[in-house]
Amino acid sequence: MANIIGELRVVYTELSGEVAAYDLVNWREGGLFITGYTYDGFRPFLRERINHYYVKPDPFDICTSAPLTPLKPPKPPKTIPVVVFTGFAKADKARLVAQAKEAGLTTSSNRAVSGNTDCLVCGPKAGPAKLKKAEELGVVVVNETEFQKLLETGELLVSD
C-alpha cells in the first residue's frame, strides 16, 4: 500500500477511554490499523477504536473550498489479528508465539509477511527483506518490548 499524500483527522478513543483528535500526515490504511505521523511522531490507530476520520482538504489547492470530507466507513476489523515473529532464537520465538496465542492472536505458521499480516514483531536478528515487505504492505512493525506492552494493555505504542 502506498502512503496517502495529505492530512487525515482521526477522532480516536484511547485505551483510557479518553477521546482525542489527531492530525496525521503521510498516512496509510492497512489491516487493523490506520498509521501515520502525528505531531508526536509515528503512531498506529486501531480501527475498532476510531470514532471518525476525515480527509483534510489541501490548503494550497485553490479549487478546493469544501469542508472536511468523510471517508467511507472503515471495513469491519478481522476478528483475530495475525502476528508474525522474526529474528528471534527458537526458544524466544516459541515463548512469544505461546503468549500471542494465549492473548487470542493468530500467529502465521509460514513465517511470511503478507497482506493478511497485521503486526511484525522483530527480534535482534530480523532480516531487512521482511522489514521492507512489511513496510510496503503497511504492516505495523514492533520490537519485543512494544509487543509485550500490547499484550499487557491492548494498546500498540510504536516508537519511530
Blueprint of the fold:
Elements: E1 4-13, E2 19-30, E3 33-38, E4 41-46, E5 50-56, E6 69-70, E7 82-86, H1 90-102, E8 106-107, E9 119-122, H2 128-137, E10 140-143, H3 144-153
Parallel strand pairs: 7-8, 7-9, 9-10
Antiparallel strand pairs: 1-2, 1-5, 2-3, 3-4, 5-6
CATH third-tier fold name of the largest domain: Rossmann fold
The CATH class assignment of the largest domain is: Alpha Beta
> What letter string, H or E per element, gives the SSE order?
EEEEEEEHEEHEH
CATH superfamily of the largest domain: BRCT domain
Widest sheet: strand order?
4-3-2-1-5-6
Query: How many domains in all?
Result: 2
The quaternary structure here is: single chain
Structural class assignment:
alpha/beta
Helicity level: 10-25%
Q: Give me the Rg, rounded.
A: 17 Å
Average pLDDT, rounded to a whole number, is 78
Low-pLDDT segments: 64-68
Q: Give the beta-strand count.
A: 10
Q: Which term fits the overall shape?
A: globular
Q: What profile does the largest beta sheet have? A: 6 strands, antiparallel
> End-to-end span in angstroms?
19 Å
CATH architecture of the largest domain: 3-Layer(aba) Sandwich
Strand content: 35-45%
Count helical runs: 3
